[in-house]
């Protein structure tokens, strides 16, 4: 019933459209009547039917045309009824869209040839221009823009007249401009207008359209087009720089996030924690467990999974960190090489433990609604996930700085790093400060894991891929200097992304590693080395 | 006379080790070739290959002990030198395949034909000649170590920093060798070897010979390392390990000593890799993985750093455990065990097996400085206790 009502409404609309555009012979034929032409099983009849259906605007039209293109449209020669075989092999009536209980008997597939296939494709394009779904109209506009198919022009102009959505109307105008520009018989004024429209669009597609100007176009049109191409190209170049910087910031924030805990354990305490990567990994798995639990018991809380996972991951990894410090590392202070080996052993145990519990395969960690999707920022596609990770990283960094500066633990931590014996004499319980500092560093790795679970595969090997990078970031920035870590993470990220287009991702990474190795020869204590007595302490 | 000189440089442990190794070097190949498979003393070919692999690791461990145990340079990149030696050998073996490859190209190895390469890259020239390949086995790891060490030691990068950048080095090489464009077979590495010096690598006789050569190389590497650490040169590198600044102030060019030890050690690791490849039959980029290098460090730690015999024993022992644990139902527990070994050895047995045994032996002999000190302080405390009793 409802379906019929909608069909009726669309029919009325298309009739209205047809009367509106008097210059073009778009007539809305009766949908069912057009369908019957398929039953003739004659190529020219089918062609007419395709055209008719395309302009009918019936909600079923697209489905029918797609079925025709995929040889899933059947006809009954006797009753002149047309059926669609759905992708799940059930059948439905093409005219009404109603599902049939059983496959109808004595039906044949409607045959198509290559010429028909082309017109079907075009017809589908035209159809979607009038689709009630804004996204599909946008897609249709984009595909016409790319194909610059002149036969789509009348339908496009029709659609443009009724389009209410400004963004889509703009896309239609651009598509129209692209078509007009590619036609030799377009008037000079139209050409110049089209050039301006495309210049406003300003992307690679616009350049392609501007280059499609026929040779016999006027000289000033050509100059205008060339100017527009040059303008777009310089703008694109700028965007690609900005984009590299953005990607670099994004990579840098990931590096910073992974390294920030290490900046505490290695940078402030001087402990080589090779199990740091595993803390990140455990943080990511905590997210997985939280999401798994939420999926099972409270699916509507899914968007809250990350805020819930953050403190949990901090606690879990922080506790593990305290245990490692109390159980192993405290016996090894002053023996950094041994610490390195022992914590490597811990990392192997943690990895294998996670592998035993959760299995060796990647675990699926979903993205909450605010982390998925992207938005356009002056021609720059920015994904929300990356954006939030950068914001989150900076928040964590600033919170850490504040904690070190203004909390009692932070004060004690700094005191112990600067002069252990003096701090001890002043009544600070240095062993506890050591344990809590290590716990803090590990906890930070854990919350890094929560964020990284959004952009990386959550597998037992997750941590291994970050450990060398993290050490590089901390060493490059200068051990014991949090701001140095920040600068070095972003510098390495951006440098990496600028090298990537020149050399490829892997080679860029190798270059960065080699440059870092060379850099450490030059400045063994990093970019921002501590000076004075603290160096030897 | 030479024998006398060698023996004079050895301690008891070293003599036992050499005797055992010499026996293994002779017995295993002969038993494999001559004895019937039914004999109790028959060593099957797979076992010989396995022991051969262990011995290669032992050479790597000795080379690592030379730099870490005696000179205090914890290299987390020795696996890279090992792999480079292996690749040099692998390249020679690839060139020997000739027209027997899948694509039957007389010059280009299969993977290059597959990648549509038209001619041999320059760095593959000469690898069809064994002497050249042999030279490269020592030269490539040695040269890399020389350049790396020259840069690092000159700017006094020490301790953990050095460890981290050696790790970064092997990581960078890992990434590089994974690339197909590098011309080293990418992901798959080099494999499907046919001949070495005209002998079939799969043949029992070749395998037995390779085993003998590996055992011999281990003996020679041990002797070279032992010679290095027992001469006055050895005293200086130990001094560098224990007090680098003091040694520098005494007028020794610390960088030069370190560089020499590092380079020799890298070349030795390269030799180990070169012997490893024909016995295992493949070399691929995973040999560069940082985890491998760290594992080699733990062999040395288990056996006892600063005792060359310990390094070799540790390598053989840990790898034997690995073989036992990575096959069958124990497989999921191997990493737990390996991790536990790392932790326990560093916490509880910092001297390693041989180091601890040596300690017991010395104490038993009663000529250990530490034992003497303990005896003295014990006497002293006895006296004070006795005094306290009188006064109490």
Walk me through what this model shows.
The complex is a heterodimer of chains A (537) and B (392). Chain A is elongated and about 100 Å long. In chain A, β1 and β2 form a beta hairpin. Chain A has helices at residues 2-20, 31-36, 43-56, 61-69, 114-129, 134-147, 153-162, 166-182, 188-201, 204-211, 219-268, 276-297, 305-327, 336-358, 384-406, 408-418, 420-425, 430-452, 464-477, 482-503, 505-522; strands at residues 73-76, 81-85, 91-93, 108-109, 374-377, 380-383. Chain A folds into two domains: 1-127, no CATH class; 239-535, ABC transporter involved in vitamin B12 uptake, BtuC. In chain A, the strands form two sheets. Chain A has a four-stranded antiparallel β-sheet with strand order 3-2-1-4. Chain A is mainly alpha-helical. With 392 residues, chain B is mainly α. Chain B folds into two domains: 2-350, ABC transporter involved in vitamin B12 uptake, BtuC (Orthogonal Bundle); 351-392. Helices cover 72% and strands 2% of the residues of chain B. In chain B, a hairpin with a 2-residue loop joins β2 and β3 (199-200). In chain B, α3 (45-70) packs antiparallel against α11 (254-280), α3 packs across α13 and α9 (232-242) crosses α11 (254-280). Chain B is globular and about 80 Å long. Chain B starts with a helix and ends with a helix. Classes of the chains: A mainly alpha (537), B mainly alpha (392). The interface between A and B is large, with 40 and 43 residues.
Number of domains of chain B: 2
| Secondary structure tally, helices of chain B | 16
- Estimate percent helicity of chain A: 55-70%
Biggest protein-protein contact in the assembly: A-B, 40 and 43 residues
Rg of chain B (C-alpha, Å): 24 Å
The structural domain count of chain A equals 2
Q: Which architecture of the largest domain in chain A per CATH?
A: Orthogonal Bundle
Largest sheet of chain B: 2 strands, antiparallel
Mean pLDDT, all residues of chain A = 83
| Topology-level CATH name of the largest domain in chain A | ABC transporter involved in vitamin B12 uptake, BtuC
CATH architecture tag of the largest domain in chain B = Orthogonal Bundle
CATH class call of the largest domain in chain A? Mainly Alpha
The oligomeric state is heterodimer
């Amino acid at each position: 019933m409802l379906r019929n009502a909608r069909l009726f409404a669309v029919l009325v609309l298309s009739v209205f459209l047809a009367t509106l555009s008097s210059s073009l012979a778009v007539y809305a034929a009766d949908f069912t009547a057009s369908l019957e032409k398929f039953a003739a099983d004659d190529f020219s009849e089918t062609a007419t039917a395709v055209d008719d259906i395309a302009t009918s605007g019936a909600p079923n039209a697209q489905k029918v045309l797609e079925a025709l293109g995929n040889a899933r449209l059947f006809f009954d020669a006797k009753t002149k009824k047309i059926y669609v075989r759905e992708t799940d092999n059930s059948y439905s009536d093409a005219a009404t869209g109603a599902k049939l209980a059983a496959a109808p008997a004595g039906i044949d597939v409607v045959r198509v040839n290559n010429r028909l296939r082309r017109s079907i494709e075009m017809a589908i394009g035209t159809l979607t221009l009038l689709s009630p779904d804004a996204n599909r109209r946008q897609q249709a506009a984009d595909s016409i823009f790319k194909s610059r198919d002149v036969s789509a022009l009348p339908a496009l102009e029709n659609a443009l007249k009724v389009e209410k959505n400004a963004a889509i109307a703009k896309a239609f105008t651009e598509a129209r401009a692209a078509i007009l520009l590619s036609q030799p018989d377009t008037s000079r004024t139209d050409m110049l207008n089209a050039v301006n429209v495309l210049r406003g669009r300003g992307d690679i597609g616009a350049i392609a359209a501007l280059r499609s100007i026929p040779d016999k176009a006027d000289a000033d049109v050509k100059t205008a087009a060339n100017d527009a191409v040059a303008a777009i190209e310089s703008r694109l170049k700028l965007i690609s720089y900005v984009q590299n910087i953005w990607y670099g910031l994004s990579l840098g924030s990931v590096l910073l996030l992974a390294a920030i805990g290490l900046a505490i354990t290695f940078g402030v305490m001087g402990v080589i924690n090779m199990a740091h990567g595993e803390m990140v990994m455990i943080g990511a798995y905590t997210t997985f467990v939280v999401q798994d639990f939420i999926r099972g018991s409270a699916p509507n809380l899914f968007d809250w999974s990350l805020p819930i996972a953050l403190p949990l991951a901090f606690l879990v990894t922080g506790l593990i960190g305290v245990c490692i410090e109390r159980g192993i590392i405290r016996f090894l202070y002053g023996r950094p090489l041994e610490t390195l080996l022992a914590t490597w052993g811990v990392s192997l145990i943690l990895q294998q433990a996670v592998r035993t519990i959760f299995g060796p395969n990647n675990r699926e960690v979903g993205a909450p609604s605010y982390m998925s999707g992207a938005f356009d920022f002056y021609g720059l596609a920015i994904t929300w996930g990356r954006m939030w990770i950068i914001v989150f990283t900076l928040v964590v960094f600033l919170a850490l700085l504040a904690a070190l500066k203004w909390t009692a633990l932070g004060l004690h931590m700094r005191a112990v790093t600067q002069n252990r014996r003096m701090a001890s004499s002043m009544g600070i319980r240095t062993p506890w400060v050591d344990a809590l500092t290590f716990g803090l560093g590990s906890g930070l790795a854990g919350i890094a894991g929560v964020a990284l679970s959004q952009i990386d595969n959550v597998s037992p090997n997750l941590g291994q891929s970050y450990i060398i990078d993290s050490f590089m970031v901390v060493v490059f920035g200068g051990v014991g200097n949090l701001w140095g870590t920040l600068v070095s993470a972003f510098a390495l990220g951006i440098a990496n992304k600028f090298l990537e287009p020149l050399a490829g991702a892997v080679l860029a990474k190798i270059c960065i590693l080699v440059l870092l190795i060379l850099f450490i020869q030059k400045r063994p204590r990093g970019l921002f080395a501590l000076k004075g007595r603290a160096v030897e302490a | 006379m030479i024998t006398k000189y060698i023996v004079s440089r050895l301690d008891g442990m070293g003599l036992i080790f050499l005797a055992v190794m010499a026996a293994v070097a002779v017995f295993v190949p002969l038993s494999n070739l001559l004895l019937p498979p039914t004999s109790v003393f028959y060593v099957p070919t797979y076992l010989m290959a396995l022991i051969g692999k262990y011995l290669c690791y032992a050479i790597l461990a000795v080379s690592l002990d030379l730099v870490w145990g005696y000179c205090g340079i914890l290299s987390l990149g020795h696996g890279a030198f090992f792999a480079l030696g292996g690749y040099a050998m692998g390249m020679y073996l690839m060139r020997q395949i000739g027209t027997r490859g899948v694509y039957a190209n007389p010059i280009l190895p299969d993977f290059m034909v597959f990648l549509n390469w038209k001619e041999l890259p320059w760095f593959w020239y000469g690898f069809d000649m064994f002497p050249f390949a042999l030279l490269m086995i020592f030269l490539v790891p040695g040269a890399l170590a020389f350049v790396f060490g020259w840069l690092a030691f000159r700017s006094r990068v020490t301790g953990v920093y050095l460890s981290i950048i050696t790790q970064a080095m092997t990581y960078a090489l890992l990434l590089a060798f994974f690339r197909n464009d590098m011309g080293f077979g990418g992901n798959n590495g080099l494999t499907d070897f046919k001949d070495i010096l005209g002998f079939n690598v799969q043949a029992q006789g070749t395998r037995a010979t390779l085993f003998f050569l590996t055992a011999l190389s281990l003996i020679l590497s041990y002797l070279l390392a032992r010679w290095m650490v027992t001469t006055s040169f050895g005293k200086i590198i130990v001094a560098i390990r224990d007090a680098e600044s003091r040694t520098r102030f005494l007028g020794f060019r610390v960088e030069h000593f370190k560089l020499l030890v590092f380079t020799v050690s890298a070349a030795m690791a390269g030799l180990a890799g070169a012997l490893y490849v024909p016995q295992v039959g493949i070399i691929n980029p995973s040999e560069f993985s940082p985890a491998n290098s760290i594992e080699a460090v733990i062999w040395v730690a288990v056996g006892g750093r600063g005792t060359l015999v310990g390094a070799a024993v540790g390598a053989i022992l840990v790898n034997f455990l690995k073989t036992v644990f990575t096959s069958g139902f124990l497989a999921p527990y191997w990493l737990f065990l390996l991790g536990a070994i790392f932790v326990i050895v560093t916490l509880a047995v910092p001297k390693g097996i041989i180091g601890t045994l040596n300690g017991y032996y010395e104490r038993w002999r009663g000529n250990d400085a530490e034992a003497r000190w303990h005896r003295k302080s014990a006497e002293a405390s006895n006296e004070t206790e006795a005094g306290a009793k009188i006064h109490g």
